[in-house]
Amino acid sequence: MKEDNYNFQWKDLGDVEIGRPNLGNATNVSVYRLMQYTMRSVLNKEFGRLKADELFYKAGFVAGEEFCKALLVSELEFYDFVAQLQKILKDLNIGILRVEKSDLEKMSFVITVAEDLDCSGLPITGETVCDYDEGFLAGIFKQYVGREFDVKEVDCWSSGDRVCRFTINLKNGQ
User: Fold this and answer.
1) Is residue 127 over pLDDT 80?
2) Cα three-residue angle 52-54-58, rounded to 5 degrees
């Protein structure tokens, strides 16, 4: 994993059941956020906020692709795929996903995630902070559809909303 050309794969997460026979697969959300927000702090200081946001998006994208490959059945029709995604996100305590709008012809969607792992309960700063989630959703949709998507968070707990809202649109020219 310390190679310059390391590429994450789902198997790199290891076997948690073997490695944590007493503590299991769960942890406190604050511990997860501790890793995420200290990493964001370091990246912001080292590279600036825009580059840190870009890197979080890219990491989320890789995670979304691998998540989809490992845990989702991509051959399902769209609404069955979304139902499966909703269930897995809830079962893993990542968040509660809802589709607000969908246009399958244009491949354009608006979704919300309530109780989001990354931001629900954060102080209100007036800014969206879920760059990783944008990439995560873009990676899932890319893996499912086989085409690139633009994903943008338009509402966030941190911006004063009670859900994270994302627009998902097929990239131009595809």
Assistant:
1) yes
2) 115
